[in-house]
Automatic annotation (TrEMBL):
Protein name: Glycoside hydrolase family 31 protein
Organism: Joostella atrarenae
Highest taxon in the source lineage: Bacteria
GO MF entries: hydrolase activity
Glycoside hydrolase family 31 N-terminal domain segment(s): 38-209
Lineage: Bacteria, Pseudomonadati, Bacteroidota, Flavobacteriia, Flavobacteriales
Residue stretches making up the DUF5110 domain: 689-757
C-alpha cells in the first residue's frame, strides 16, 4: 500500500482532522484543521452528493448535467458522533466520516460496505493553471465489476481498465481506443450482488482507473474543478441507472418516424441523386423514413445556406420527399466560415458571439469551410441566437431533423485536434477556459439546436442527432457513435458502445450501420443491419469514398435480408415506442445488457454481446463471417426461439443456429409482443389492427403497449393509450387481462391474436365472462383469433 508520506512527497495534499461541522436542512459540512471542507447533501435516501473544497471556498454551484426536475426527497437527517468518526443515516444508507482525515465509508443498513475510501480525497496544486488537480481513491471490493462510462469501445465490464474523458473526434477509432466522442463520467460498481453508481460531475478532463494501476483500488481524478460526485445506491443495477437518469434527465418522446429506418451518406447530392435513392427504396419496397444531407448541400460549407447548383429549390424538394414519406435531415457544424459577406458570420461578429483566445482574438481554426470562428454555445445569448438560425430550415423549408457534427469541437491540422486550452468561454456567466468547457461544448451546441427545432417544429416534435456529448445530453438529442470502420471487429464495438450508452442514460444511440470508413462485404452489411434494427437509432451511413452502401449495393440476397429486417423493425414499432416511453417516463434504458437484466447470475457479469431489447426480446449479434450460428448465453428463464418456436431454458451457454438470414432472437415466455403491419414509412397506412403475439407461459407475465398520435404534444395532456396486459397461463387455460390508461383512441378496433406455444387445444373462449362462438373470433385452427380491442378479460379454455 502506498503511504500518505510517499504521496505527499509527490506533491499530494490531504485533509487533516475534523475541527467542526455544520448541519443545514439536507446538508452537513465538515471542516478540517487545514481548511478542507466536505459537504454531504442528502438528495434522496439513496442519492448522496459529496463536494470537497480544498483550502478555499466552494465554487459557485452550477452544473450542465444535472437537470432541473431531478427528484429530491425529504430525509430525516441525523448525525451522531462516535469515537473516531461521525455517522449519518438515511432510510437506506449509512455514511461514516473519519475524524482523522475525512475518509468516507458508505454502508447499507445491514452494515455491509458498499464503497470505502482508500486515500479518499487528495489533491495537487496546479501552479500553471491555478486551482487543483482533484483526486479520489477507493478500495475495490472483492470481485467488483464496473460498467457505464458512455461510449468506451471496450468490454462492458471495465475492471482492469484506465480511461480518460476528453471529447475527441477520433476518425476510424479502434477497439479500446480512448477517449472518443463522449464524456460520461458515470460508472456503476457492483459486488456481492449489490450495485451503486458514482457520477463525478466535473467537466474538465477526467480520469478513471478501475483496478488497473493497483489491483484493488479504483480512483478518479480531474485536471481542475471540484471533487464533486454523486453516490447512487442500487441495490440493483437498474435502480442505479434509473437514479442517474433521474439526476441527468430524460428526453421527451421523439416523433415515431425517428424510430424507423434512416439512410445517410457523405454525401447525397445533387437533388437528382437524392431522389434516385429515395425512389429506389420505394421501388424495392424497403421501408425508410429519413434521408440525410451531409455537408455538400451547403454553399461552400457555410451553415444555414444551400448550394443552389445542387439544390435549386430546397423547399420544393423537401416537400416532394415528404410527399413520398421521407423526412429530410441536414447536417450543421459549429464552425462558421470567416466571410464578411456571410450573414451568419456578420451577425456573430456584430454581437460578439464567437469564442476568444486568452488575449482577445477570436478562436480561429480550420474546418470544412476553411478558416472558421466558433460560436460560444456556453453563452445563453449565443444559444438563443443559434436556435433562431433554424427558422428558415425548419419553419420555411420543412426540414425535419438536424444532425450536429464536429462539435467536440473538431479542428483540422492542429495538435490535439481541438481548441487550445486558453480559449475563453462564458459557461453561463462562470467564465472559464476551454479546459473546463471542452467536454460540454458539443452538448451546448446540440442543446441550442434542439431549442431551435422545438420552437420551429411546433406543434410537432423536434429531432436532433449529435456526435459529441456530456452527461445529460440525452435531454436534448439522440446520438451516433462516430466514424467507425467496416470491419467485423467494429460490429462488436458498435454493439458494446450502444449497450454502454444505454446503461449511461443515453439510450437513443446507434452506429453507422455497415461502417463509415472502408467498404463492408455484403455479408458484413447484412449482419450489421440485423443488429442495427435492434439499436434504438437505426441509420446506415458511410463516408462514400469507397462505393455505395445502400441496401441494394450488394447482391439480391443482401437486399432481401435488409428488407426482411427493416420490415421486422417496422412491425415492432409499437414495441419500440413502448420501450422509448418507458425510457422517457421512468429512465429505464431501452437496451439492457445481461448484467442489468440478471445481476444475481454471475455468468452475466462479463457478457458483452447478448442484450434484452426492451424487456422481453433477447438478441445476440453474429460477429463472424461464414457463421451458421454461434454460442451465446441465454439468461435465466424460459425463452422461445423467435424463428422456431421451441423453448430454451436459460442459465446456460448454448449453440444457436443463425444462418445468414437470421440473427438469434428469443422471446421471453409469457410476453405479449405488439406489432404493426409493415409500412414503407411511419403513417403510410392507417393501422387497422394491432397484432399481439402471445407467448404462452405456465405462470404470469406482464406486457405493455404505449401508443399516441406519434407526434405532437397531445400525449402530455393525457391523449395516449397505455395498455397493460397481464397474462396468466395454467395447464389448460390462458387468461389475458387488459388494463387501459389514457384518453387516446387508437385507430384500430381489433387485436389479431397469435397464440404461440399453447400446450392445449382450444375448446372455448370467453370475453369478459361471456362465452363467444368460436366462428366469431375466427379461429383458423392455427391459434389465431381476431377480437375487439375493448376487453378486460380474455379467457381461453382448453380440453
Ligand atoms: O470530417 O460531414 O462523423 O458522419 O459524414 C468529417 C462529413 C466530417 C464526420 C462525421 C461523419 C460525416 C462527416 N464528418
Amino acid at each position: 500500500m502506498i503511504t500518505n508520506t510517499e504521496l505527499e512527497y509527490k506533491g499530494n495534499l490531504f485533509p487533516s482532522q475534523i475541527t467542526s461541522h455544520k448541519k443545514e436542512v439536507d446538508k452537513i459540512t465538515f471542516y478540517t484543521k487545514n481548511n478542507v471542507a466536505l459537504q454531504i447533501s442528502f438528495l434522496r435516501d439513496s442519492v448522496l452528493r459529496f463536494r470537497y473544497a480544498a483550502e478555499q471556498d466552494f465554487e459557485t454551484d452550477f452544473s450542465y448535467a444535472i437537470c432541473d426536475d431531478a427528484t429530491y426527497g425529504y430525509n430525516y437527517l441525523g448525525i451522531e458522533e462516535k469515537e473516531d468518526h461521525f455517522t449519518m443515516h438515511t432510510s437506506k444508507l449509512e455514511v461514516r466520516v473519519s475524524k482523522k482525515d475525512l475518509r468516507l465509508a458508505i454502508l447499507d443498513l445491514d452494515g455491509n460496505i458498499l464503497n470505502e475510501d482508500e486515500l479518499g480525497f487528495h489533491w495537487e496544486e496546479s501552479y500553471h493553471y491555478g486551482g487543483n488537480i482533484v483526486k479520489m481513491s477507493k478500495f475495490s471490493q472483492e470481485s467488483e465489476s464496473f460498467y457505464g462510462m458512455g461510449d468506451k469501445p471496450s468490454q462492458l465490464n471495465l475492471r482492469g481498465k484506465r480511461i480518460e474523458n476528453w471529447v475527441t473526434d477520433q476518425f476510424a477509432y479502434s477497439k479500446d481506443q480512448d477517449p472518443l466522442y463522449k464524456s460520461v463520467p458515470f460508472y456503476i460498481g457492483m459486488h456481492h450482488d449489490t450495485a451503486y453508481g458514482i457520477f463525478f460531475d466535473n467537466t474538465f478532463k477526467t480520469h478513471f482507473d478501475f483496478c488497473n494501476e493497483r489491483r484493488n483500488i479504483t480512483s478518479f481524478w480531474a485536471d481542475g474543478g471540484e471533487m464533486n460526485y454523486y453516490f447512487i445506491y442500487g441495490p440493483s443495477v437498474a435502480e442505479v441507472v434509473v437514479g442517474y437518469t433521474d439526476l441527468t434527465g430524460k428526453p421527451e418522446l421523439p416523433p415515431l418516424w425517428t424510430l424507423g429506418f434512416h439512410q445517410c451518406k457523405w454525401s447525397y447530392y445533387p437533388e437528382s441523386k437524392v431522389k434516385e435513392v429515395t425512389n429506389k427504396f420505394r421501388e424495392l419496397q424497403i421501408p425508410c423514413d429519413a434521408i440525410y444531407l451531409d455537408i455538400d448541400y451547403m454553399d461552400g460549407f457555410r451553415c444555414f445556406t444551400w448550394n443552389k447548383d445542387y439544390f435549386p429549390d430546397p423547399k420544393r424538394m423537401v416537400a416532394e420527399l415528404a410527399e413520398d414519406g421521407f423526412k429530410t435531415i441536414v447536417i450543421i457544424d459549429p464552425g462558421i466560415k470567416i466571410d464578411k459577406d456571410y450573414w451568419v458570420y456578420k451577425e456573430a461578429v456584430e454581437n460578439d458571439y464567437f469564442c476568444k483566445r486568452a488575449d482577445g482574438p477570436y478562436m480561429k481554426g480550420k474546418v470544412w469551410p476553411g478558416e472558421c470562428n466558433f460560436p460560444d454555445f456556453t453563452n445563453p445569448k449565443v444559444r438563443e441566437w443559434w436556435s433562431g438560425l433554424y427558422k428558415e430550415l425548419i419553419a420555411d423549408i420543412g426540414v425535419k431533423g438536424v444532425w450536429n457534427d464536429m462539435n467536440e469541437p473538431a479542428v483540422m491540422e492542429v495538435p490535439g485536434k481541438t481548441f487550445p486550452d486558453d480559449v475563453r468561454h462564458n459557461y453561463e456567466g462562470n467564465f472559464c477556459s476551454h479546459r473546463k468547457a471542452h467536454n460540454i461544448y458539443g452538448m451546448q451546441m446540440a442543446r441550442a439546436t434542439y431549442e431551435g427545432l422545438k420552437k420551429y417544429s411546433f406543434p410537432k416534435r423536434p429531432f436532433v442527432i449529435t456526435r459529441a456529448a456530456y452527461s445529460g445530453t440525452q435531454r436534448y438529442t439522440s446520438s451516433w457513435t462516430g466514424d467507425n470502420v467496416a470491419t467485423w471487429e467494429h460490429l462488436w464495438i458498435a454493439n458494446v458502445q450502444v449497450l454502454r450508452m444505454a446503461m449511461s442514460g443515453m439510450s437513443f444511440t446507434g452506429s453507422d450501420i455497415g461502417g463509415f470508413a472502408e467498404q463492408p462485404s455484403g455479408e458484413l452489411f447484412a449482419r450489421w443491419i440485423q443488429l442495427g434494427v435492434f439499436h434504438p437509432f437505426c441509420r446506415v451511413h458511410s463516408s462514400g469514398d469507397h462505393g455505395n452502401q445502400e441496401p441494394w449495393s450488394f447482391d439480391d440476397e443482401v437486399t432481401n435480408i435488409t428488407r426482411k429486417f427493416i420490415e421486422l423493425r417496422y412491425q415492432l414499432l409499437p414495441y419500440l415506442y413502448t420501450m422509448f416511453y418507458d425510457y422517457t417516463e421512468n429512465g429505464i434504458p431501452m437496451l439492457k445488457s445481461l448484467v442489468y437484466f440478471d445481476q444475481e447470475d454471475p455468468h452475466t457479469h462479463y457478457r458483452n454481446d447478448e442484450f434484452i431489447f426492451g424487456n422481453q426480446i433477447l438478441v445476440c449479434p453474429i460477429l463472424e463471417p461464414n457463421s451458421k450460428g454461434r454460442r451465446m448465453y441465454i439468461p435465466r428463464g424460459n425463452w422461445y426461439n423467435y424463428w422456431g418456436g421451441e423453448v430454451s431454458k436459460g442459465g446456460k451457454e448454448c449453440w444457436v443456429e443463425a444462418d445468414i438470414d437470421k440473427i438469434p432472437i428469443f422471446i421471453k415466455e409469457g410476453a405479449i409482443i405488439p406489432k404493426y403491419p409493415v409500412q414503407q414509412y411511419v403513417g403510410e397506412k392507417e393501422i387497422e389492427e394491432l397484432t399481439l403475439d402471445v407467448y404462452y407461459k405456465l405462470g404470469k407475465e406482464e406486457s405493455n403497449v404505449f401508443e399516441d398520435a406519434g407526434d405532437g404534444y397531445d400525449y402530455k395532456k393525457g391523449r395516449y393509450s397505455l395498455r397493460t396486459f397481464k397474462l396468466t397461463g395454467k395447464e389448460n387455460q390462458l387468461i389475458i387481462q387488459q388494463f387501459k390508461e389514457g384518453k387516446y383512441e387508437t385507430p384500430y378496433d381489433c387485436f389479431k391474436i397469435n397464440l404461440i406455444g399453447l400446450p392445449f387445444k382450444i375448446h372455448a373462449v370467453e370475453i369478459d365472462n361471456v362465452e363467444i362462438l368460436m366462428e366469431e373470433v375466427m379461429i383458423n385452427g392455427d391459434g389465431n383469433m381476431t377480437i375487439q380491442k375493448e376487453f378486460t378479460q380474455l379467457h381461453i379454455k382448453g380440453f
